[in-house]
Amino acid sequence: MRLKDKVAIITGGAHGMGEAEARLFAKEGARVVVADILGSAAEAVAADIRGGGGQAIAATVDVTSEAAWRTLIDQTLSTYGRLDILVNNAGISGSSVGDPDGLDGWDRIIAVNQTSVFLGTKLAAEEMAKTGGGSIVNISSIMGFVGGASGHPAYCASKGAVRIYTKAAAVRYGPQGVRVNSVHPGYMPPMLNATNAGERADKIEATPLRRLGEPIEVAYGVLFLASDEASFITGTELVIDGGYIAQ
């Protein structure tokens, strides 16, 4: 019960890494808000957590909207009375927009991957400071460190911005007891589900551990940073990539 009685918001919590984080956090004693633009899918995850004895509610949220963020935090406070943890997990890849090299595609990727992290961190930190602090974990990517042929420039730019913004936020909010760290996953589903078998084989060959990662492996890293076990860790990065960027 590493998160016993803590309250956590996880964006993008309806599937993939966010779902794995939500389920693990609930198992470890947290009261979880499963937040996603896919409201029915978020409710399905929350209902399953409750069915297993955990505590969870669902929230439909557009993470690019400041008003939606304020509503999400208000809903969390009205339900659970406090906010201890935020995981900014929501994000999209270049393949999620029509033309990732066009201005509309750039704006959409930046809004979902980067602006949402700014909004969530700022508003959550304000609430956490009222109760003595908390932990914010921003999900970036290995493409926040390096460019890659498979990563669209807008995606790499957004994830690199999350990495540096996390450091700046850690410095700003540290005096209020709010820790801010980033996690950088490597290649794993669901981000690779749409790629062909040849590309998946290439990614496996390029990873020193010679396999793809699993969302739960990221979730355990996020759990550590969210917990009191990481009480003196802020402004840093945790890379979970099977050794990909060590080369």
- H/E element string? EHEHEHEHEHEHHE
Q: Measure the end-to-end span.
A: 36 Å
Spatially, the strands of the biggest sheet line up as 3-2-1-4-5-6-7
> What radius of gyration results from the CA coordinates?
17 Å
Strand content: 15-25%
Shape: globular
Helix content: 40-55%
Please count the helical segments.
Answer: 7
Mean pLDDT reading: 94
- How many strand units? 7
The biggest beta sheet reads: 7 strands, parallel
What structural class do you assign from the helix and strand content? Answer: alpha/beta
Low-pLDDT segments: none
Detailed description of the structure:
This protein has 247 residues and is of the alpha/beta class. The protein is 45% helix and 16% strand. The chain has helices at 16-27, 39-51, 66-80, 103-130, 153-173, 197-206, 215-226, and strands at residues 7-11, 31-36, 55-60, 85-88, 134-139, 178-185, 237-240. The longest helix has 28 residues, at 103-130. The chain is globular.
Key terms for this structure?
single chain; 247 residues; alpha/beta; 7-stranded parallel sheet; 7 helices; 7 strands; 45% helix; globular
